[in-house]
UniProtKB/TrEMBL annotation:
Superkingdom per UniProt: Bacteria
Name the UniProt record assigns to this protein: FemAB-related protein (PEP-CTERM system-associated)
A Pfam family assignment: Acetyltransf_6
NCBIfam families for the chain: pepcterm_femAB (TIGR03019)
Span of domain BioF2-like acetyltransferase: 158-293
Organism annotation: Sphingobium subterraneum
Length: 351
């Protein structure tokens, strides 16, 4: 029912409204950290891309939320994205009528800002007018075990052997959200994505997310003889731990420090009171997707909705697309300092 329904912009400069929306989002089991206003605000602060979120009101009460980021890039064009720089988000609504109204308002907003395409990354998808795509990404989530030993035994035997090797390597673990940890994490993250052939996001994005989420975000660092080798920046939301940005040096593979980091993070999450470990999304048919399966996680297809203006193609920013393969290989050959300098200017337009 749409009687009495009103769609309005979220006033991010109104602390009371932001707090009310955040409380409504956090009270819902179907929400993600990317639905929280602090995510949209951190993205805007860290990338310069504008937050244009929508709220559905029914008889004065919140009935739905749609976090949006207006992404503009000279290379990748303009798009209205929910949620920007996230793997989830989309429409959070009390019912399908509200979801459809938010989707219509989203497209009207996209047209008013000359965006030829809009993207809804999960959430309650609209019934009509939007194309659905479920063959690009898999999501990996699983309940945490009762204790550290059970968590270890839950890892399939072959991969558990690799994890045990890492646990015997004398690695040190530190967890926090200090500035020095952020500096180390960003350096390792930049190194990691450079090996993959993709540009690094601006450091300001990581800083804004850590500051905005406060105790609901942290970084785990694994070191060998005082040298950091693996870092993970994680988000915590409604009993779930989501390792979101992963950094690692090339030596991490031999040390099995990535295995140690994720195992330690699972145990840390349980100690925080989490019940679910959300390994995040990976592209279908890739090494990261296969690696997550070796941990005993099953991949579930993620369904996104997209819409394009008449005569326009849906925006494609998937680095696995054939049009980007030569660029990816060239990017890998750039010196790391140069890639780290240029990368944020490009990546801020990927959204």
């Amino acid at each position: 029912m749409t009687a009495g329904l009103r769609i309005a912009p979220l006033r991010l400069d109104d602390a009371d409204e932001v707090a009310a929306i955040d409380a409504w989002v956090c009270a819902r089991a179907d929400s993600a950290p990317f639905h929280r206003p602090i995510w949209s605000m951190a993205v805007e602060k860290g990338t310069g891309q504008e937050a244009l979120s929508l709220v559905a009101w029914r008889s004065g009460a919140i009935a739905g939320v749609l976090p949006l980021t207006l992404v503009h890039s000279p290379l990748f064009g303009r798009a209205l994205v929910s949620s920007g720089f996230a793997v989830d988000g989309g429409i959070l609504a009390d019912d399908r009528a509200v979801a459809n109204a938010l989707a219509d308002a989203c497209w009207a907003l996209a047209e008013s800002h000359s965006c030829p395409t809009a993207e809804l990354r999960g959430g309650l998808l609209p019934d009509t007018g939007w194309a659905r795509k479920a063959d690009s990404y898999l999501g990996f989530a699983k309940a945490l075990e009762a204790d550290d030993e059970a968590q270890l035994l839950a890892v399939p035997r072959k991969h558990r052997a690799e994890l045990r090797k890492g646990l015997e390597n004398g690695l040190d673990i530190r967890i926090g959200n200090d500035v020095d940890l952020l500096d180390i994490h960003y350096r390792l993250y930049a190194e990691n994505v450079h090996r993959l052939g993709t540009p690094v996001f601006p450091k300001a994005l990581f800083a804004a997310v850590l500051h905005g989420f406060g105790d609901d975000a942290d970084i785990i660092m694994v070191s060998k003889d005082g040298e950091p080798v693996t870092t993970i920046l994680s988000l915590y939301h409604n009993g779930a731990c989501m390792p979101y940005w992963h950094g690692a040096r090339a030596v991490a593979r031999g040390l099995r420090s990535n295995e140690v980091a994720y195992y330690a993070l699972m145990n840390h999450a349980r100690a925080r009171g989490c019940t679910t470990f959300d390994f995040g999304r990976s592209k279908v048919g890739t090494g990261p997707a296969a690696w997550k399966k070796t941990w005993g996680f099953d991949g579930v297809p993620l369904t996104y909705a997209m819409r394009a203006a008449a005569g326009q193609e849906v925006r494609d920013i998937n680095p696995l697309s054939p049009q980007y393969q030569k660029k990816v290989e060239l990017w890998k050959k750039l010196p790391l300092p140069l890639a780290s300098w240029i990368g944020p200017h490009i990546a801020r337009g990927l959204g």
